[in-house]
Amino acid sequence: MTIATDLLQQHIQTLVDDNARWQTLIADDILWELAYAPSLGHPAQLAGRKEAVRHATWFVGAVENFRFSDLNIYALADAQGAVAEVKGEGLIKSTGRMYRQDYVVFLRAAHGKIAFLREYFDPVRAAQALDTPILGQLIAEGPAS
Asked: How many angstroms separate the CA atoms of 93 and 80, rounded?
C-alpha cells in the first residue's frame, strides 16, 4: 500500500459511514473536482475544507443506507497518487428512489492528507434518482417536417 491508496481506501470507508473521521483525512486546502456535477446544478469543484465538508454533509443527509461496494484501488507510479473504481447504492430520501452509481475517483495526497480528488459519475443516474433535470440538455421537439 502507498500513502495515496491507503487514503483512498479510508475515503471510501468513511465518507458516508464516519463522516467526522473522513473530515480528519482531508487537507485544509483540498480541491475536489466533480466533473459532471454542473449538469445537476452542483459546483464543478469544491475548494477548501469548508466547501468539501458542506458537500459531503449534504450527500450524507440526502441518502439513506448508502453503501460502497466492489472497490478496486490502483496505485500510481507516484506514491502520492491513486485511482479507484467503486460502485455505490442507496436510497434518496427526498424522492424515495434508489440511487445506483459507478464512480471513478482520482486522489492526490500531500503531507499525509487528501489534497485533491477528482470524481467521475453518471449524471443521468443521479438526475433520475434525485428527480431533477439535467441542465443544458437539449429537448427534442420531434421530427422536422
From this structure: 36
pLDDT at residue 137 above 80? no
Domain boundaries, the chain: 3-130
Record the pTM.
0.89
- DSSP class of residue 60 equals H
Burial class (CB in 10 A: 0-12, 13-18, 19+), 4: buried
By the 8 A CB rule, do 115 and 19 touch? no
> Torsion angle of alpha carbons 128, 130, 131, 137, nearest 10°?
-60
Q: What is the largest CA-CA distance in the chain?
A: 62
Domain 3-130: give its CATH architecture: Roll (3.10)
